[in-house]
Structures are given as C-alpha cells and as structure tokens.
Amino acid sequence: MKAPKVLILRAAGTNCELETLNAFKAVGGNPELVDIAAFKNPKMRVLNYDLCVIPGGFSYGDDVGAGRIFANRIKLYLRDLKNFVRMGRPVIGICNGFQVLVKAGLLPCVPSGEQTAGFTVNDSGRFEARWVHLRINSQSSCLFFKGLPEMIELPVAHGEGKFVLKSPRHLEELKRNKSIALQYVADDGKLAGYPYNPNGSIFNIAGLSNPEGNCLGLMPHPERFTAIHHHPNWTRQTFMKAAVGLEMFRNAVEYCR
Amino acid sequence: MSTLAAAQPQALSALDDEELAFNTRDARSLRELSARRLWSFNDAELAAIQAHFKAAKREPTLAEIETLAQTWSEHCKHKVFNGRIRYSGPAGCGSSKKTSMIKSLFEETIVKATKRVQKPWCLSVFKDNAGVVSMGPGSRWALAFKVETHNHPCAIEPYGGAETGVGGVIRDVLGVGLGAKPVLGTDVFCLAPPSYAGALPEGTLAPARTLRGVVAGVRDYGNRMGIPTAGGGMWFDEGFRLNPLVFVGTVGVLPASAVKKEVKPGDLIVAAGGRTGRDGLHGATFSSAALGEDAPASAVQIGHALNEKRLLDALMAARDQRLYRSLTDCGAGGFSSAIGEMAASGGALVRLEEAPLKASDLQPWEIWLSESQERMILAVPPKNLKALQEVFAATGCETAVLGQFTRTGRLVVKHHEETVVDLDVKFLHKGLPKVERAAVWEAPKSAAAKTPSPKRKPAETLRLALSHLNVCSREWIIRQYDHEVQAGTIIKPLQGVRHDGPGDACVIWPQAATLDWASHAGFAVSHGLNPSYGKADPYRMALACADEALRNLLCVGADVSRAAFLDNFCWGSPDEPSRLGALVRAAQGCHDAAVGFGVPFISGKDSFHNQSRDVDGRQLAVPGTLLISALAPVLDVRKALTMDVKGPGNGLYLVGSTSEELGGSLYAELEGFSGGAIPQVDPRTALQSFRAVQAAIAKGLVLSAHDLSEGGLAVAVAEMCFSGEFGATIDLDEVPHKGSIYSNEVLLFSESQSRLLLEVGPEKEAAFLRLAKGCARRIGATVANPVLKVIGLDGIVALEEPLSALKTAWQAPLPEALR
Predict the structure, then answer these.
(1) Which class does domain A5-256 fall in?
(2) What is the pLDDT of residues B87-108, one digit of tens each?
(3) Residue ranges of the domains in chain A?
(4) A153 near B CB under 8 A
(5) What's the rounded Cα separation, in Å, for the pair B595 and B577?
(6) Considering CB atoms only, which of B226, B491, B511 is closest to A16?
C-alpha cells in the first residue's frame, strides 16, 4: 500500500518540524517539509497531500501575536486548506500550529469562519515547559486518539498558551458539538488548577477538534513522546508502555490508507 | 545609565585620519588616544604599530588601527594565556616553590595535556570555533562543543547580553567545520545572592535583576532557536556582585566528513544573515578591559533570534549541498575579525559599500567593525553563488557579496573609491608583541586546620545545606527553557517521580539532527565549578571541577573513557601577580586532571578584567573561576540512568573514600569557619572506581546514581530520596574513610571528591560487588517509609527527617528570592 503523503508546513521560526518528520516516517507516512512560501506557486496544491501538519515553534518570531502571521499567510496562499478539512483529510496543528489554526479560523469550527477563540500569556506570566496529564474526551470522535486510553501524558512548552473564548456561549457550543478533544487534568483525572492546568486555559482546554474529528489542534507536543524513552519517568517504568504521540500519528496515517 | 549615555559622543565621535596623526605622537599621547578610543592597546603594542607604519612610510588609517585593536584584543588573541609569564610558585601537585619562565601557559598546560593523552577520536581541537570529537566508535557523526562567556555585556544589560551571548555561541557552532546543527544549549551563571543588600556603585544592577534578566535572555533566544537548553548550573557568591559571570554553551552535530574547511584564493566573500548597524561597536576591546561607569551602551549588541533561525536553516541546506568551502561567524570585531581570520593565509579584497546596512550614515570603519548579530561570512566558489543565493533567499535570509579572497598577502578594504584598510596579513596576525607578566603563587595560610565542634544538629544543618542557593532547586529557571524541543532530551535536567529532582547531567539523542531514527547513540553534557575551593587552592579547584564533571557524566551512563573537556577561565586583571599566579595554578591543575583522567581538552575560552570599582573606589575582582564542561558519548541512550531512588529494599553503595576535607565547603560556610583542607583528587584511584562504576552501569546493575558534591553525602542521599519518594537508612560507621574521623558531621558533609552514591537492587548486589568490590561499600538501604535516617558513629540515630521537610527546604529558596 502506498505511504500517505504528509505535508509538514513550515515557516521562518518553525522549529519542531524535523522530529515531526522522523515520527511520521516511523509510522509509515511519506512526510515532506514545505515552506509556506512555496504555495505562492499556483501549481503547489495542498490537495495533493493526504495529511497536513502544522508543527510547533515561533513562526515569524511570534511577532504581533503567536501564529498570527503564519495564519494570515495560510489564509492567503492555502485557501484549499478549508476544503482539505471538509473532505475529511486529517489536519493537526501542534502548539504554535494550534495557534495558527485558531487564528486562521479553522478551529473552533464555526460556520461563519469567524475567529471566536484565541490565546494569551500563561497565567504564571512565564514560558513553561513541563509534562502534563491529559484526559481525552470520550465523546469526541477525533481520529488521532483512536484506541488510546482516556488518560494520557504529553509535554507542553509555551508562553502564550492560555486558551480563551470570545464569550461563554462559545464554550457551550464547543461542548455541544463535541469539539473539546483534550483537557488538562490532575493525575486523578479531575480538572485542576496550576500547575496541572499549566496556562490557565478556560475549562482546562488543551486541544480542540472540529465536530467531525479530522482536524485537531493541541498545545501539548505529541512529537516529543514518540519513544518510551521520551517519558520523564521511563527509568522508573511506572508509566503507560505506549508512546502516545507516535500512536496519534499512526492513527492519522492508518486513517489515510 | 545616564553616565553611559553622556560618555558616548565624546568617546566615539568620528575622527578623521588627519587628526589621528599616529606616527608623530609620543608614547603618552598614544596611550591617551588608545584609552579614549577604547582600543585597550598596551604601550608595546602601540610602539609596534607605530614602527610598522613608520617603516611603511605612511600614516595608518583609523580603520586600520581599529582592525588591529580588535584583532589584537585579549578577547581574540588570548594574550595572557599565550604571553610569557615569569612564574614563582609550586609546580604540579608538589608544594616546593620554584621560579620558572612560562613561554605560553596555554601551550604548556592545556595543549600539552591534550597532546599527551592523544585521542584519535578528537577530530579538531583548539583550531576552529569549537572543539570537535567523534560521536562514538565508528559513528559517521561528530559533536562540536563550545562554551563562552558574555560577562561584560550581561553586567550592563543582562537580557540583551545573555541573548547575544547565546546567539554568539550558537553561531560559533554553526561556523565550526562546514557548519554543525545545534542540538543542546547550556548555561551557567555566577552571581551575587539575589538577597544581597549591601551598597552597589552607580550603574551596577541589583543581583536579582541581573538573574531575572539573564534567565529571560537565555530563554527567549534559546526557545526561539528551537535548541533545548537542558544543561547548566549556578553559583552564588558576593564576589560576583559587580561582575556577574554568564557562561553559555552549545553542542552541535555535524557529519564527520564536514569537519575540514579551507579558503581558496578566488572564493567570494559572502556575508549572510542580519544587516550591519551601529550596535555592538568595540565589543572585543570593551570586554578586554575593566568595567567602568563610562562603558559605552553601544558595546552591547542587539539580538534577533528569528534572523539567526533563518540563517541556521539556510546554512544547513547550503552545507548539505556543499555550496561553500569555509565559513566563520561574525563575533567580536565583526567583519574585521571574521574576514581577517579567513584571509590569514592569503589575503582579501573587501568592498564595504556592498554590505546591507541598518542605517545609511555608517562610517566605513563602523561597517567594518560593527558587531551586529546574526551574521556569518562564507567562502563561496563563484560557480556556486547563484545556487547559494537561492537557498538563502528561500528562507528569507539576506546575502551580499563583499569581495573576494586573494593570494596577495594583504587585507584590503575599500569603501567606494576610498581604501580604508591595506594591511599585511602577517603583521595583522603575527605582529603582536609578546608581553611578559609576573605571577606568584603562595598558598594562603589557613588558620584553623581542625574542624570546630558543630553549632547545630545534623538535621538542621542538612536543611540549611539543601536550601543554600548553590544547592537548591533550579526548577524556576529550567522550566522557562524549552528543554525538550528536537525531541531528544532522553535524560532531562529535572528527574524523579514528580519530575523535579536535580539531575547530574542531561542525555541527548540527536535524532532531529541526524534524522536517524534507528540509531540510539547520543551524548551527555555536564559541568564542574567551585570558586570556593579556588580561593584557597586553585590547583585543587581545577582537579575537583574536572572530577565533578566526569562523575556527573558517569551518573547518567555516559562513556567517560571517551569524555572531552572544555575550560573557561574567568579572572580579574592579570596584571596582579598573585592573581595571575592563581591562574597558573588552575591551569596546571587542568593539565594534571586531563593527563590523570586521560581526558583531553578540546576547546576553551578565557575572560579577564572581570573587576570593577566598588562603592569605596577599590577594585573588586571576581573570585578566580574555572568552569570545566564535559561531553561524552552515550552508546545507547536507552540504557541511561537517573538519580532518583527507584524503590524500597535496595542497597545504597558509596563509591570512593571520605577524608576530613571541609576547606571551602558548604559546611564550613554554614558553620562560619574558615581554613581546613581543600578536597584533593587522586585521578589514578578515581579512574579505577569510575571504570568499575561504568562497567556496572553498562551491565544494568545500577538503579540510580548521584554524585557527592556541595554538602557531601548528606545532601546527595537526601536528593536521591526525595526525588524518588522512598526513604533510606544509612550507617556512618560503614562509610569508608581515610585517616581517623570521629565526627558524624565530617562524614556527612565532607566534600571529598571522586565519590558517588549508587542504588543497587538486592538481586544484583553480588554481581555488582564482583565489579566494584575494591571501591564501593554498602552503607545502607532504601526503605518504603519516606524518612531519611542516619545512624551515627556511636550507633545512635544522628538524623531522622521526613523527606517532605527536606524537599521543601530544597525547593523554596529560588522562587522566594525572586518573588
């Protein structure tokens, strides 16, 4: 069977693309790094790919807001990305990539395409890198989480990761259409405050998907948990045996086949 | 900072060549001119330049003098380490005093040791921007490692200074061989305690502000570059209150086939990266002099991480297509140093009007000397120019052809029609007159050789030790660094059940740089530093630093038989004979450590004039500080080790022997006494036990390992226990020791070197002892109850503390100090 073509979309300041590339190769994908500028060429079509990844980093230095410039360029050069999502092909935005998806109006998925959410500086006021416990929403049908246990662990590393919504009614909407894919929790699985919720996100939201579950944005970094030796406690061997991030990518690649 | 601004216009005002009248000035007038222009020349250098131009029968231009000032600066030429030193004091570990002439301290200690240990896996030492070693037996990859300081800029502007320090050392690694991809950042800070409340002279920043600033600078630059900052440390001493030390390091990965570089006549000089502006003039000369209130603000550069990231991405693509033949970074001295260095064997013709500028009104000499950041110089064969320009344009990185390398033996720099520099490259690089300095070393007389009886109970002393700033948790700093980007941080700086215990070293699996998912080869990096020992005995300090750095590597499962060292010396003015004597002793210690452990030095750096006038007008120099950084391959990162106790019922083995060595120790500071023996290292014995421990770890016989450093056995066992959340009971009567020791405190807090604490499962103890019988002894066991219990020499419980109290003491200080 042909390996699905994975587009890893990069821009100046993207910095998690190579480990993402390695991970997609490891699960049988055929990843390709492409700079957003290449899509100025009308012959380059996002629809030529089976799967699209927007990796983490500080695109364009995060000047004028995290992910803002990258998102504008996507709106300009990658108009087909909306169709790509509509056709059910998997899209994942990680950390800065999540911020890009939100600022490009792809997540949360609202019919008008209006931006109803955003990110602001962590409640702690600092960039923070730590591993967090996450609960996968059992009602969400997000394809990336197929077969994974409800509770998982992944690392976060960001300064501007506090997810906020324009109004409380948008939260109700997200709950109603099962878009909340991932929440920060304590090790007992309950919603909890800092440091379990590392940034103060509303309703502990760590990841969102579209209602169909093929487009996912998340602040944690699945590409940093693609071998069991990435887990901070691997020398204690008291954690789940599967590398969660690798399984998420495998799900997406398998889905494309 | 008002004094800084006021000093500028006069100091840096334009001066045309007529006014310069260099050849006709007398020595005094030259000295004044040199001071006013921040050239930092000494009299002999000024005379040599004057003689050179008198012989050439012409006046030098301003740009020529500036070029010489940068190239001949201490920062670039390491005149102290390469100069002659008339030294009077002991040699090696002996104590008999002799007077000798050292022709070059660098050649006679560091280089000599590296030549003597002769390791074939050293691929490039002391020549390039960084040292280069092979990544492991048969590996097609090499590791480049460089650690630098950025002390002077960080004293004036901590955030910007730290940022550009990180940016600079990253470019060093980008410019090593044909370019290495940075895969790890490290940082070590030496500062005054944030709570320091004494008076500070005008213009000196409060220590807490400096700490916040440098952490933020390292964070913002390192994180934006996508390089994990996963190694480092900190040291607090009031002696750093006027001159903080900021060490930044980078490890890069490059193909072993890309270590060699050469410049050929006819190659184009291509500048790539950021534009040239007025920021960062006179950085090299500025950092080669004592800090005064008239230090110019423009001597600190301005960092822009995104530009450097673009440069990094473009360079890696161009390297893999072999589009250039050589490269170097623009650091101190800017174009003048970078092009001057690359033209050293042939010559160059440079056209400054081609350089992309930030401001159009720059003087030619300013373009030539500016230290604007994020710039590299490449030597590009003309046929590759178009392809190279395309690669760089694709990442949005600017390039400009500045001229051509030649074989004329002259460095010629033009600005439109005007020739601003025409220098003989031989004179530029070899014309520097050697200085001779005097150095004397006499060991300070220690008053109390006997350890006074303790003032406190051991439990209280342990809590105080754990909450000392030199021991306490660095989590507040580490969490601000993205220490896992590139998904290769297999052993993290924070370890244990709750990911918050103090790791000895980090282990990196550079999969994102090699793109080799199947190979599990990696490397570990650690540091050793202890200025307290150096105050009494710089020779022993050097050995202790080397020993500690190696033990840290050992604790994570690295192959220390293939370890390599870097040295970083930070001293005050070398013109003070006793201070220079201390430097000589430290360098001798480095030599003996390298030879004794069989570990080569592969690169290093020195920084002098770390001194300023305090409020009373006296010169206050930093304590002579040596940072030894160590790098070693980890053959299989999946066999690495952490320091947290893994479970109850396991044996605790102490490797090495304890002596009454409390000189310069944390215990001595807490108890308020001075004197005592500085820990002494016997590399031969140490190496035997290191080999046994390494073999045991490789066989999977060890569950956790931690080194004994500040605070000795007590601190080490406490850290292992609270990180693993299991208690331990140890019996001091079982601790192997030299000489008669009748004090629990000495056994608990002595800082004898070469010691490690290992946890071994009961089923593996027999096998472990077969390997480590001669060097390790079981001193206790781990228990499920989260309490640390120590049985004293008299058989009575000397210390019994819940782990939660110990951990709280260890975690509280830094967040509190920076609240």
Answers:
(1) alpha beta
(2) 999 987 766 778 999 999 999 9
(3) 5-256
(4) no
(5) 27
(6) B226
